[in-house]
């Protein structure tokens, strides 16, 4: 069986389709809740599951990441729009316009090939960022399992404190249902992993709720929602309204870019298939434009649903297409079937799926291998929890740049003494016999603004320690991949200093591309281009070059 979806085969088609049914059972109630968090009608959450999901699934390179509105994005939508004083009928139009702008920014990022920015986020940053997101989702689901409603606009620790202070409000019926659901899910995953446990648990819990009228005993259920197909329209707003939405739309785009690309790369690394960050950004952008045009709201990557699909063994986007088809059928003829799904059991299903994303094992490994990188991971985790996904994103990029600058500003600088001792281990490309008075210095990094002064100081120390017998210094450029204006000025300073001391400076093993850069910066004027030729080396020692 051939399909346009990578990874779908005749052997896994049924499994993937069943995973899609489970995804439908999880996503529908969650999206209804996220729409309510965003201040929109529940049906707006269902609209996001149809056209935007199809567009995303057909364009994305990831085989597993599920696109959907999430709690963080929904809270940002609500906070940003209410902060602008939006209310009434304009609220839905502004949310749709915000999604369109978010999509435009993501498409632009894809066209400009900015997906590489995610490569600045190392494994510790990835683990910390995803763990923080997972903890946020887990807290909200635990509250749902206890039958306690938390304020959506509070940060993680405020919500955790609120939950602890209100633990006495726990609905014991909700807790019992949740505990039973968690037990069945864990047992099913252990003994019958081929069975879609989440679907079985949700259907069974819904039947039980209806039969025993558990909603009358305090168990929260979804309730009645409006139906009908998605409504397509372009938001009729003025230029001032569009411009007012730009900052929040840009923030949503950045969150989507970070979460989407990071989660995509995480699962691709784990499951062994290639992904393209730029193509994923295009898919998210197109999905957000489709969401805005179908009167929904901003979409990103769903950490919880992606984890649930991975747990079921899904490795394709077929479940997302099944989700879209099933959601459309529900909108047309079946919204009344959703009314009695118990919210605590939804929380249990999501909590079991997302808890695996909290990388405690990896954090322990970082602590054992590198305390610095462990600190980076913890900082990113806390950043997400304290200042939110957007703040955590900025913190992650800042820490990545600090780590990169820290490493690049202190490169390895090897000092290779040329000697007449035949027992001395030769340097590749540098013969050792008859070359007394020559020092070879190997700089193992790009030469740029962060480390140019380091090379200048190190060469000065080496020359001073060598004493008056030094005739020449050779810069072995094999490890230098690039040079910028500041690095070029550092080399000029070294050349002037050595020439003033009567010492010849030479460079060896210049890469073709690097030689062009040296020539452009006039770095070859007054500098000997040195190779492994013995005569040239002898000339350096005699000072005749």
3D architecture notes:
There is one protein chain. This protein is mainly alpha-helical. The protein folds into 2 domains: 13-402, no CATH class; 413-542, Transcription Regulator spoIIAA, CATH 3.30.750. The protein is 61% helix and 5% strand. It is built from 20 helices and 7 strands. The protein has helices at residues 13-37, 42-47, 51-59, 71-83, 90-111, 123-146, 156-165, 172-191, 197-212, 239-271, 277-293, 303-311, 318-334, 343-354, 360-369, 371-408, 452-466, 485-500, 512-520, 534-542; strands spanning 67-68, 300-301, 413-417, 438-443, 472-476, 504-508, 528-530. The strands form 2 sheets. A 5-stranded mixed β-sheet has the order 3-4-5-6-7, sandwiched between helices. Strands 1-2 form a two-stranded antiparallel ribbon. α19 links the parallel β6 (504-508) and β7 (528-530). α10 crosses α11 (277-293) and α17 (452-466) runs parallel beside α18 (485-500). The longest helix is centred in the last third of the chain and has 38 residues, at 371-408. The protein is elongated, with a radius of gyration of 30 Å. Mean pLDDT is 83; it is low at 418-434.
């Amino acid at each position: 069986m051939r399909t346009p979806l990578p990874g779908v085969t005749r052997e896994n088609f049924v499994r993937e389709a069943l995973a899609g049914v489970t995804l439908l059972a999880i996503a529908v109630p969650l999206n209804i809740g996220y729409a309510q968090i965003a201040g929109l009608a529940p049906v707006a959450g269902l609209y996001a599951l149809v056209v935007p999901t199809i567009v995303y699934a057909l364009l994305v390179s990831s085989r597993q990441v599920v696109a959907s509105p999430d709690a963080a994005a929904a809270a940002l939508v609500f906070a940003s729009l209410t902060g602008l004083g939006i209310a009434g009928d304009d609220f839905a139009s502004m949310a749709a316009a915000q999604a369109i702008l978010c999509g435009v920014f993501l498409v632009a990022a894809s066209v400009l090939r900015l997906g590489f920015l995610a490569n600045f986020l190392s494994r510790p940053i990835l683990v910390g960022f995803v763990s923080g997101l997972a903890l946020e989702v887990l807290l909200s689901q635990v509250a749902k399992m206890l039958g306690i409603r938390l304020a959506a606009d509070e940060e993680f620790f405020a919500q955790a404190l609120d939950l602890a202070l209100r633990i006495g409000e726990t609905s014991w019926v909700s807790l019992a249902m949740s505990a039973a659901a968690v037990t069945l899910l864990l047992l099913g995953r252990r003994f019958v992993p081929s069975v879609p446990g989440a679907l079985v648990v949700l259907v069974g819990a819904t039947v039980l709720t209806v039969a025993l009228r558990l909603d009358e005993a305090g168990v929260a259920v979804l309730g009645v929602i409006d139906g009908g197909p998605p409504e397509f329209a372009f938001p009729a707003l003025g230029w001032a309204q569009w411009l007012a939405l730009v900052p929040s739309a840009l923030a949503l785009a950045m969150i989507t870019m970070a979460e989407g690309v990071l989660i995509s790369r995480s699962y691709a690394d784990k499951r062994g298939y290639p992904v393209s960050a730029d193509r994923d950004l295009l898919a998210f952008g197109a999905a957000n434009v489709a969401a805005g045009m179908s009167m929904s709201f901003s979409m990103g990557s769903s950490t919880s649903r992606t984890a649930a699909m991975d747990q079921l063994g899904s490795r394709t986007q077929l479940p997302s297409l099944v989700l879209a088809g099933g959601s459309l059928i529900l909108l047309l003829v079946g919204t009344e079937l959703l009314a009695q799904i118990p919210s605590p059991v939804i929380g249990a299903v999501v909590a079991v799926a997302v808890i695996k994303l909290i990388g405690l094992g990896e954090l322990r490994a970082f602590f054992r291998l590198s305390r610095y990188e462990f600190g980076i991971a913890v900082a990113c985790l806390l950043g997400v929890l304290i200042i939110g996904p957007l703040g955590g994103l900025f913190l992650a990029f800042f820490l990545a740049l600090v780590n990169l600058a820290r490493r690049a500003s202190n490169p390895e600088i090897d000092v290779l003494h040329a000697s007449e001792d035949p027992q001395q281990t030769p340097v590749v490309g540098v013969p050792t016999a008859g070359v007394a008075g020559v020092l070879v210095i190997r700089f193992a990094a790009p030469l740029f603004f962060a480390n140019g002064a380091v090379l200048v100081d190190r060469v000065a120390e080496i020359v001073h320690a060598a004493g008056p017998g030094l005739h020449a210094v050779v810069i072995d450029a094999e490890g230098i991949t690039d040079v910028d204006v500041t690095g070029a000025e550092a080399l000029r300073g070294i050349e002037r200093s050595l020439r003033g001391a009567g010492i010849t400076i030479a460079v060896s093993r210049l890469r073709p591309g690097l030689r062009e850069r040296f020539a452009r910066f006039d770095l070859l004027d007054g500098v000997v281009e040195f190779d492994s030729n013995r005569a040239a080396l002898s000339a350096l020692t005699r000072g005749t070059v």
